[in-house]
């Protein structure tokens, strides 16, 4: 892959596509996808010339990591936009998964708290001297004598 002189592209320091690229213009080429770039730092500043810059997906950059460190890597603006979009989608997916896990944890905590409040109510009624049948009636739908007995038979941690 090669770009024409004067073509806009992006430059990745150390060929690291996980970082923000710099704007660049092709000022020379050797015809083999190795470019000479004038790069413009984000936020302004002095432009810089980078020589012997290979494409970020070039096999030589994968084989010789020193070249990536020394010369960086270039990519087309379209590919950089695709990488950024994919990265943002991946980050959003990760955030959505974490939000779902957090919501599930909150739901479980709320369900446990509700269950504990109901068990405390059973104990309060039992301490008032109500029978298992009376407690079942007072607790309402979904409660049976067996369920009341199960709550009362659970080991209880002492509270101070």
Question: Care to describe what's here?
Answer:
- This protein has 160 residues and is an alpha+beta fold.
- It folds into two domains: 8-75; 82-153, no CATH class.
- The protein is 50% helix and 19% strand.
- The protein contains five helices and five strands.
- The chain has a five-stranded mixed barrel with strand order 1-2-3-4-5.
- Helix 4 packs across helix 5 (145-153).
- The longest helix is centred in the middle third of the chain and has 51 residues, at 77-127.
- The radius of gyration is 33 Å and the shape is rod-shaped.
- The N and C termini lie far apart (74 Å).
- 19% of the residues are buried.
- The model has no long low-confidence stretch (mean pLDDT 91).
In total, how many domains does the architecture comprise?
Answer: 2
Side by side, the strands of the main sheet go 1-2-3-4-5
Measured on Cα atoms, how large is the radius of gyration?
A: 33 Å
Mean pLDDT across every amino acid position = 91
Shape: rod-shaped
Q: Give the H and E element order.
A: EEEEHHEHHH
The span between the termini is 74 Å
Strand content: 15-25%
Regions with pLDDT < 50 over 5+ consecutive residues?
Answer: none
Helical/strand content category: alpha+beta
Count of helical regions: 5
Largest sheet: 5 strands, mixed, barrel
Brief overview:
With 160 residues, the protein is an alpha+beta fold. It contains five helices and five strands.
Question: Which labels suit this protein?
Answer:
160 residues; alpha+beta; five-stranded mixed beta barrel
Topology readout:
Layout: E1 8-12, E2 22-29, E3 35-40, E4 48-55, H1 59-63, H2 65-71, E5 73-75, H3 77-127, H4 132-139, H5 145-153
Parallel strand pairs: 4-5
Antiparallel strand pairs: 1-2, 1-5, 2-3, 3-4
Helix pairs in contact: 4-5
